Amino acid sequence: MAEERKRLDDYCCQACGFRLQIGSRFVIEVHHKTPLSDSGVTETSIDDLISLCPTCHRIAHLRSTPYEVEEIREIHSSRADQAVETNRGEPSSFGVTDEE
Fold first, then answer.
1. pLDDT under 50: residue ranges of the chain
2. Beta carbons within 8 Å of 82's beta carbon, 6+ residues apart
């Protein structure tokens, strides 16, 4: 089912548009829109899956309730709108919060 979702999404991240093919393989992951731990369901459907690049998939799981794809897009958008910050070598949070 994961392979089918990737194919349906053309191996493209649905949050940022990233698409990378190395040889015959694509760098793409599949994410559950509704965490199985929340739904209690042990089976899933193709409609509950979405293709995300590794970076966006990591962003999705930065908080206990995963960011939705639209929220990830907003994070990318706010990051792109910000000027490069120097903060004495300290990374900027770009509006991402660690919510538990």
1. 83, 86-88, 100
2. 92, 94
49: tokens are: 């899956």
CA–CA separation, 54 and 40 (whole Å): 25
Q: What is the pLDDT of residue 15?
A: 97
Give CA–CA dist 40/14, Å, rounded: 25
Is residue 5 exposed (0-12), middle (13-18) or buried (19+ Cβ within 10 Å)?
buried
Which residues, at least 6 apart from 99, have a Cβ–Cβ distance to it below 8 Å? 63, 64, 65
Predicted local distance difference test score (pLDDT) of residue 95: 55
Measure the CA–CA gap between 15 and 25, rounded to whole angstroms.
20
pTM: 0.76
* Beta bridge partners of residue 52, listed in sequence order: 29
